Amino acid sequence: MHRKLLSAAVAPAFTLALATAPFHVGAAPTRASATANADTTTQLPRGVVPTHYQIALTPDAATASFGARAVVTINVAKATSTITLNAADLKFSKVTLAPAAGGAEREASVAVDNDAQTATFTFAQPVAPGMYRLAMDYTGVIGTQAVGLFSLDYPGADGKQQRALYTQFENSDARRMIPSWDEPAYKASFALDVVVPAAQMAVSNMPATKTETLPDGRKRVSFATTPKMSTYLLFFALGDFERAAAKVDGTEIGVVTRRGALPQAKFALDASQAILREYNDYFGVRYPLPKLDNVAGAGRSQFFSAMENWGAIFTFEYALLLDPAIATQHDREEIFATAAHEMAHQWFGDLVTMRWWDDLWLNEGFASWMESRTTARLHPEWNTHLGAVGVRESAMRRDAIAGTHPVVQHVETVEQANQAFDEITYSKGESVIRMLEAYVGANAWRNGVRAYMQAHAYGNTVSDDLWKQIEKAAGRPVTAIAHDFTLQPGVPLIKVGEPACRNNATTVALTQAEFTRDRAGKAPLAWRVPVIAQIAGSKNQASTLVTGGKGTITIPGCGAVIVNAGQSGYYRTLYSPADFAQLATRFASLAPIDQIGLLADSSALGQAGLQPASDVLDLVKATPSGADPAVWTRIAVLLDGVHNRYREQARGGDATRQKRFDTFAIARLAPLMAQVGWTARPGEASSVANLREELVNVLSNLGDANVIAEARRRYAALATDASAVPGPLRKTVMGVVAQHADAATWDQLHLAARNETTPLVRDQRYTLLAATEDRALAMRALQLALTDEPGLTISAGMISEVAQRYPDMAFDFAIANLAQINERVDASSRSRYLARLATGSSDPAMVDKLGAYAQANLAPGSRGDVEAAIAAIKDRIQVNAARLPEIDAWLAQNAQ
After folding, report:
1. Strands 500-502 and 505-515: what pairing?
2. Alpha-carbon torsion 580, 582, 584, 588, what sign?
3. What average pLDDT score do residues 149-166 get?
């Protein structure tokens, strides 16, 4: 699953009614099995294991309901009078059991536990051990949010409203369409047939093997049986679709879109072909299914952007389609990365699946790393390898405050499993893998991954299964290091001693502490930390393993030492003031990845009070105009972050400090904007296009009059000149206009959104209405979000967008309209949504508001995101009070 939404602008979520029934470890079946191992957490009684599901489904999109019959082949390991499986929002009309080899049926009585999301079938006489066919006739509901079987409405090519159906089962929502053993360790095969309107296309994991016309004009489509897989990977979609496909290494790879949008999927189809070839080689196991589709859906979720259903990836349109009217270079990179992520899951997650949600990172962390590796490998011209620091920072922001958790975390409830899809699982998981690959070497790492795939294909694993294979392939200890970084939370801090140069070699003492932003005096945890260092400006590197809290490293050559050279390590680096000053003077000679790393570390360490908060501005001042565009993009983001902190103070009545900082930031970035220009030059690097977009956005936030005026001019010119704003800048220009809109302009933008017929553009226009700086207009956007006009899947994103500038107002509005919010947020996100809205607040009152919300609405074990939000708010308040004065002082001396 790809989670593009970790930016607070697209936050995950909450509810009044959560699935909080605990999973538990049950007794083992008498027959050993790769599924449902004795030590695997479960919500279901042991002793019954499914092997095959035969599902007949008849959806009715108009009535938002479906009828179905599921016949499950099961192995009963010991005599029992009851069979319990997962079911949610299903109504059973008949349940029978018969021997698999043939024999008399017996009917069961049915008891449904809505809170536990289970159904129990009780038989008059005990069921003896053996193989049986459990047949269930039932009905269910088609939802409007992305859980279970759900619908998405959109304007069709003819302007008429269309409705398409899709499924989303991760992590625990297959039970909303199929009564099932809905846990990853219960792998089975699936055979699906559906009765659907004749004019519509049905898509599932496997190709259709038979289509027959029924007497009433509908058709029955039967799909081939899947390999053995977990329930959450089953997929079905139905709608007025088009499909294009190509052959790669014997696999038919395709894209499926709403009618009229197929040309916009060409980039994704081309990318998928290249990615599949790469993965077939890298994993050493060929993709095993006959086809792999990527199915596009209109709208959005607050939980995910794409899902790795085996053989039928689902992706929301904004993460799959390239509309030339609005597409940017950044969009191209994101679409490629999303495809690379979900296709990596076809191996890491689908072919080999974590045994339980504790090890979710085996799926998501690895797919995230593979996405980054593959994007950099297949598109080196995009220079995306420099994004590794940003991934690390995303994890460390969460990992350095109270409320963090280990990468491998114990999960007991459905809601806790939902909350496991976070920055630690994805970004820290990716960063730890990057570090370990650098430690053992790329070839050894790949050999270990290949061995892991071959050893566990079609099975379930825990993290140590991977470490065992990596360690064997590398011939050096890995497990202990991996345990340090995955079984305990937190961020190591490497303190760098004074370099000593002798005989043209530099020796440095290293001390390991712990980096924390909000727990001064905390006793540090211990890690075995792989460290790579080099002399600034030199290519000579050395490596060591810091153990027991201490270590030394000797590097060929003499000069300023850059620790964590290449930035593969998951730790902060703290230099002495003298050494930092020396690196600042040599900043222009550092590799771009190390420039970005030094900027990130100095910013975070400054906010934590471990070095002057203004040190990062010394680096900003030392950055030459010719630095890598990715470095300047990072600087723009950093300056924007400081601006946002001053803006919070300005709302309290102190606008002078913000104006002084904004003046400095504009003076640093505006000349670069003039150099980059508004119009792309032939042959310019893709990183320049991304920098242009970032500069316009940040200068707009800073209130740069020239950028705002130029964006308005270009937008106005669109009325008579379609070329006034090139496609790659259209979203950016419209964003500036929306941000600084007055009431009349906002009304015009609203009318344009209402009249837009292209779903992808329409969704974007409604989200922009919520990006306004004007508080009164932001409230109008909140009110609009609760109407049916934007679409039920867009509303939550609009409210999250308002929260970027007005977190307190957005949170209070959501609390006041909780029932309507629940209708507009998918169930997988509900326990997180309000916490994410509030995270950007710097008002102490928000801490109590969040606590009251959690107390009233969330089970004690489902408050992880609330606790993290509270820690972030407290940290924000403390940093604003303690660190902004240091920046004030620096500005007084350096602003000129």
Report:
1. antiparallel
2. negative
3. 90
How far is Cα 625 from Cα 640, in angstroms, rounded to an integer? Answer: 18
342 catalytic residue (yes or no): yes
> What is the rounded average pLDDT of the residues 316-320?
96
**CB-based contact 157:798 (threshold 8 Å):** no
Identified catalytic residue from 278, 333, 342, 694: 342
Locate 430 and state its tokens. 């990716």
| Alpha-carbon torsion, ordered 382, 388, 389, 390, to 10 deg | 70
SS3 655: coil
Smallest CA-to-CA distance from 21 within 41, 36, 35, 38 is with 41
Query: pLDDT-based confidence at 19, cuts 50/70/90?
Result: very low
Q: Where are the alpha helices (DSSP H) in 509-655?
A: 577-585, 592-607, 615-622, 629-651
- pLDDT tens track for 52-100: 999 999 999 999 999 999 999 999 999 999 999 999 999 999 999 999 9
Residue closest to 334 by CA, chosen among 6, 679, 723? 6
537 to 125, 488, 493, 590: CA distances (angstroms)? 79, 35, 24, 6
Provide the greatest CA pair distance for the chain: 90
In single-letter form, the type of residue at position 253 comes to I
As given in the structure block, the two tokens for residue 397 are 């922001």
Q: Which of 260, 103, 39, 72 has the alpha carbon at shortest distance from 182?
A: 72
Contact 281, 312 (CB under 8 A): no
pLDDT at 325 (0 to 100): 81
Q: Which residues pair with 550 in a beta bridge?
A: 511, 547
Residue-by-residue DSSP string for 178-191 = S-B--STT--BEEE
Task: Name the β-bridge partners of 220.
Answer: 195, 212
Read off the pLDDT of residues 253-264 as tens digits, 9 standing for 90 and up.
999 999 999 999
Q: Is the pTM of this model over 0.90?
A: yes
Site of tokens 């360490």: 605
Place of tokens 């471990």: 610
* Distant-in-sequence, close-in-space partners of 379: CB < 8 Å, separation ≥ 6: 333, 336
